[in-house]
Specification:
It is a single chain. The protein is mainly α. It has one domain. The chain is built from 13 helices and no strands. Helix 4 crosses helix 7, helix 10 crosses helix 13 and helix 12 crosses helix 13. It starts with 13 loop residues before the first helix and ends in an 11-residue tail after the last helix. The N terminus and C terminus are likely disordered.
């Protein structure tokens, strides 16, 4: 007779306690309105400061690629961020809070500035505090932020795994292993596995469990918007690369998969703000299959400037009107 296998409980050691304590401490500190405004200022300065040493190289890249291509790339980047917002909205709605787009944008785009501060916890904390203005519990908005990141990561890996090996077939065999990851990633996105992984994560970081299972429709909707965002982000790279590439058509597929794979590498390096370093190395390595090393480096650098400008533009566009609007019921929770 087969014995029923028992699984060990989720880890409750020092690492898990430290993660939960750090999140609770950060949320307590962020409850101050002045601290939140300081957070925005630090994030803006950090984003701008990371680009400042490269301003001359960025200006030269603009001259080389052309202002028209840069403007078109910026529009694609903004559209990609808007698609990411919709993925977050779908996730939040699946958890029980259906926030209108205008209000969701105020929470999401301002909160996203936290990715320019070292440590991946800051966007989660910022969104949790900003969402309190709309009567959304901290644990629900922080769970939505965490789950959106994980689903976006899975969608990014799926996008990269289905494009990079095909685009580089016959040119670079190092990426063929990505094709083997496609069925694994697809299976991992099954709603039952998503709920099991989320429940385990919440236990590890000592957050309240879900009141109800995360619905399959929300998983599919969030994944759909996330894949759409990766396509748009890839187009933003392609618009910069096409004037320099030997084969603009092939460069499109490499741009889509390359940016997705590079972002996932940057995300996994949690100690670097906005994936600095790892993302650029991976992206340049892939873009050099379509253009020279100097041109690929120029595109990667200009891409970071475009994405940073898009983040700041959208955050400013939604935050400034909020200051002129009528005070919300929870005034201290709004920026």
């Amino acid at each position: 007779m087969l014995r029923r296998r028992s699984f060990p409980p989720p880890p409750t050691g020092a690492v898990a306690r430290l993660a939960g304590s750090a999140l609770r401490l950060a949320q307590t500190v962020a409850a101050s309105r002045w601290v939140r405004w300081g957070f925005v200022a630090v994030a803006v300065l950090a984003g701008a400061g990371a680009l400042a040493p490269h301003r001359h190289a960025i200006a030269e890249s603009v001259r080389q690629i052309g202002a028209g291509a840069v403007l078109a790339s910026s529009a694609a980047a903004v559209a990609g961020l808007a698609a990411t917002l919709q993925a977050w909205r779908a996730t939040l709605a699946g958890l029980g809070s259906d926030l209108p787009t205008a209000k969701a944008a105020k929470v999401f785009f301002v909160g996203q500035l936290g990715k320019y501060i070292p440590g991946s916890v800051w966007p989660i904390v910022a969104q949790a505090e900003l969402a309190r203005a709309y009567a959304i519990p901290r644990h629900r908005s922080s769970t939505a932020a965490l789950l959106t990141m994980l689903l976006s990561l899975a969608a990014g890996l799926l996008t990269a795994a289905t494009t990079v090996p095909v685009a580089l077939a016959g040119q670079d065999v190092r990426y063929w292993w990505l094709l083997a990851a496609v069925p694994v990633i697809a299976a991992a996105l099954h709603p039952r596995l998503v709920n099991a992984a989320l429940a385990a994560t919440l236990r590890i970081i000592r957050r309240p469990p879900l009141a109800r299972p995360f619905p399959a429709r929300a998983v599919l909707t969030a994944i759909g918007w996330s894949v759409g965002s990766w396509l748009l982000f890839g187009i933003h790279i392609w618009l910069l690369l096409a004037p320099l590439a030997d084969d603009p058509g092939k460069a499109l597929t490499v741009s889509v998969g390359g940016f997705a794979l590079a972002w996932c590498a940057g995300f996994l390096l949690v100690i670097a703000p906005a994936g600095v370093g790892a993302r650029d190395v991976v992206l340049i390595a892939l873009l050099t299959t379509q253009a020279g090393s100097a041109e690929a480096t120029a595109v990667a650098l200009l891409s970071r400037a475009v994405m940073t400008a898009a983040d700041l533009l959208l955050a400013g566009a939604v935050a400034l009107p909020a200051r002129r609007a009528q005070p919300s019921p929870n005034r201290d929770a709004a920026i």
